[in-house]
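Researcher: Last one for today. Full complex below.
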Amino acid sequence: MPDLAISAAHEHEPTFGDYVALLKPRVMSLVVFTALVGLLVAPASLHAVEAVAAMLFIALGAGAAGALNMWYDADIDSVMRRTMNRPIPSGRVAPDEALAIGVGLSGLSVVMLGLATNMLAASFLAVTISFYVLIYTMWLKRRTPQNIVIGGAAGAFPPMIGWIAATGSISLEACLMFALIFMWTPPHFWALALFMRSDYEDAGIPMLTVTHGRPVARRHILAYTLLLVPVSLWLALGPIGGPVSLAAAVVLNLMFVWGAVQICRRDETVAQCDGYAAEKAFFRASLFYLFLHFGAFLADAVVRQAL
Amino acid sequence: MSGIRATHELHARRLSRNLGVAVALAVFVAIVFALTVVKVKRGDPLQGFDHVVRPGMEVAGS
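Model: Here's the assembly. Have a good evening.
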């Protein structure tokens, strides 16, 4: 009985791991990696301490945005199988606490990035957090099937912030890195929506698969994948590219377009028969696509330094 | 009758949280300190409370 009383009284007694989960560490890893590449391929360098601090505060800003997203979306997270074990819907973290952590870390990360690097980078981090929370989470996500197309901009800002942190200015290369992630986001999330089946529908989120049907979503995946190709090749042939980036762009785009064509050709009956194998493979490939693409930019930067 | 337990599962969770927050704060302090050292050693111009550069605040000969 005393045990039960204690448990009831301290239902929201989170561990440190619960706080970490609130910051969406997997999303954060992609943010950190792309921001790091943006910072390292820029034609200017920061002191190692400033670079480490910049990465840490960009990651913290991304985590803060994730916490605010979880706070606002707790109602729909509890309905979807993919998200029902997140800290708030599972009762491990109280919503008010998540809000306080999100707001506090947002302010801290922006101010500290400004002090560590420059105010333009800090402004872009503030815009990124605001865009993700206000434009994507609060406005677009529950209203339009274009939610992840426009909202994808939030995930595309990190390499640009890394670049600005190093150089103090915006350039074409930074914009192209933004464009690469922006064009990559829709096929990535629509592939997920295809094999998560009724999750988004149950939660009332107007994903393209729900509002326009799965065949339309399949065609959109192919269209955005094709639009991604010129951006990828432009970057590979530009100042931050090189032989490694070009080889990676050719191979990765061929694989990605081939996967999108496969998805476009299939219908629901075929997909259900093999348990959405092609859609799941495309989703996994999309993660490799981005990591390897940015890894190739980094490799070319190392080669340029060595020569 | 169950015996008195020195620690409840609740205490383990609190310990985890407190240690995590302590480490995070220590890392934050270390980063601010390291950043300060780097910027001062590089001789970045000193700024006033309003972030405006104040050459008059520089110590002569430094």
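Helices of chain B lie at 9-42. Chain B touches chain A at residues 8, 10, 13-14, 16-17, 19-21, 31-32, 34-35, 37-38, 42 (CB under 8 Å).
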